[in-house]
Amino acid sequence: MHYEDEAEERVYHRLNADKIAGYLEETGSFASFFDHYEERPPQLDLTRAITHCFNDSAIGVFEAGTGVGKSLAYLLPAFEWALANKVRIVISTGTINLQHQLIDKDVPDALKILGGCGEQSEQPQAVLIKGRQNYLCLRRLMQTIQEPDLFSQEAEELAAIQKWAQTSKDGARSELPFMPAAGLWSKICSESDNCLGQRCPFYTDCFVMKLRKKAEKAALLIVNHHLLFADLASRKEGAGYASTAVLPSFNAIIFDEAHTIEEAASGFFSRTFSRYDLTRCITTLSRTKKGRAAGCLEKITAVSTKAELMPAIIAALAKTQTAYSALEARALSFCGNVSSLGFTQVPASKTAALLAACKDFYAELNILNVKLAVLITNAEPDEGSPYEEAVREGSLALHRLQDISETLENFFRWKELPDYVFWIEKYQSPVGEVPYFNQTPVDMSGLLRQAVFTPFDTVIALSATLKIGTSFSYWLGRVGLHPFSDKPVRTGTFESPFPYDKNVLLNIPTDAPAPDDEQFQQFVNTAVTKLIEMTGGKTLVLFTSYESLKQTCAYARMQLPDMELLQQGEDDRSRLLQTFKEHIDSSLFATASFWAGIDVPGEALSHVILVKLPFAVPSAPLFRARADAIEKRGGSSFMQLSVPEAVVQFRQGFGRLMRSQTDRGIVTLLDKRALVKQYGRIFIDSIPPTKQCFASLEEIVYTVENFLY
Fold this sequence. Notes:
The protein is of the alpha/beta class. It folds into four domains: 17-125 and 218-267 and 444-494, Rossmann fold, CATH 3.40.50.300; 132-207, no CATH class; 271-440, no CATH class; 500-708, Rossmann fold, CATH 3.40.50.300. It has a seven-stranded parallel β-sheet, with helices on both faces. A seven-stranded parallel β-sheet has the order 16-17-15-18-19-14-20, sandwiched between helices. It has a four-stranded antiparallel β-sheet with strand order 6-11-10-9, with helices on both faces. Helix 3 (70-85) crosses helix 4 (96-117), helix 5 packs antiparallel against helix 6 (152-165) and helix 9 (225-239) crosses helix 10.
């Protein structure tokens, strides 16, 4: 089937919303695959609402609670719309887990339903597409295998990858039976600016080209938010909306996990660099392996008419690295004892000192870039020779060095760019603290309005956490839909069918010290330990501070030496989660990413402890810049930014508990601000009605015992 690539005004074939929702009724085709099928009225209503959005070229913003079955509610109308109108639709998710759930389970279910109805004469396709660097490049693999100075471990990994590639369907790194070293994968993965296209000897077997051809025939493209924004940025910058950019053309978008799209867009439209970006480029150009030169510079020099520049380039490389080391030292001094700091948060003299070091590095980097450009531009390699590949690698390294230079130019003009926040963030690494240099848009609403909501006929945004209280206004404003007049914007809430009022107990200890009280940490240590002991493990403890997490876990391990207490940071995230799922009596102490996107149904997770209301750190540079912008408009940054963001995160943390109809358990919040502060009610009202115990810790422990046993 051909899906239209032409952008033109056209009349669409409308869908029958009741008919599509009927597939999911007790008498519908889906029920025939189950012995005991129960229809879910919220799922039927959501299916109708999404279908109406397609019919009316509208934007739909829908909150669907856990268990509604939102995947089928959008897949069915999406497939029907694509088939009826010969258009392509993108489904964008926030997590890789959901991508795989869609392609492995939900899409086959949807196709089974449509096939059972006899509605289509041909089978539509859905294709999962990841970022290009997730796929193996056969040409780069063969070139790397032929390198003369491979270490034995590299040679073994490459041999295993070569054997795997002979039978792999899609060449995706995630399908490998082992995780290759990051440095090795970077040498053999597919890269757009390193691609020969049809000139490549491996073009016929190329995994990326095969995927592109499948995508062109597909009705639905399943991607993550970051890849979608890469495509949208390319279209916005001139690729247009009627042709292939990163993805084939499409005319509708469905965002699942839509509460994360602002963050994803912000990350994509930011500019950042660190020592790792510089080192990667320099290593590509000039490195030694087993005592021999292994970079691409020597090969480029051998075929360049400007070979005499080689000594000057080697000297410029050394000076650039020296200047960057000085800049790193200045950046770490700039941050001092905090992990991140913006230019507007410090005295002007401190920013000036940092920018002086930036200018020194910029000067050396530009000298290097100019000389490199002359050397590479005057290279004349034979087609298909190793020298041609060296020139291509050198050009790619030069392009990346020029990107760093452009970012630095923006840093020098930071006062002229008030729509961006410029900031330094430092991370701990095996070699010590590493600073990152960042430029991030303060407000994403305009970009999202222009790139997402205006150009496409229909955009659907779905999540379990879009509202603050009863209103969508906060989320609509953040993404550029409040106000919005280009097309209808529809909102709707579809409640979870799970019995929260019977199966969930919410505890808040009234005798907890305030979170800023010095006694609070000891209270947390005691409370967490007592509650884990009472529930026999099966507990996820979510913190807002890694330091607090470490203290509480250490205390609990001393008090409960026979219990399995897992700590984030002591093992790989996915292995920790797998251990937590499989070892039913274990408990997991976690922060940040574990507040959202993890799915542990059943008895293994019977208790979620939320240590604090998850307010953002008010001094974080991006948060501070957004707060300042609200204050300048005469608003309250606390009520218009701090509280709404914390509510969304709180709802995500609460949502870790109930993952199936039969789940039963407890959520304990150790932060009594939810009870004693005026804004606290917003948090309580943002979650489904539950059983409640707002009492002393001692009474809560007793209530937990009675509730569970």
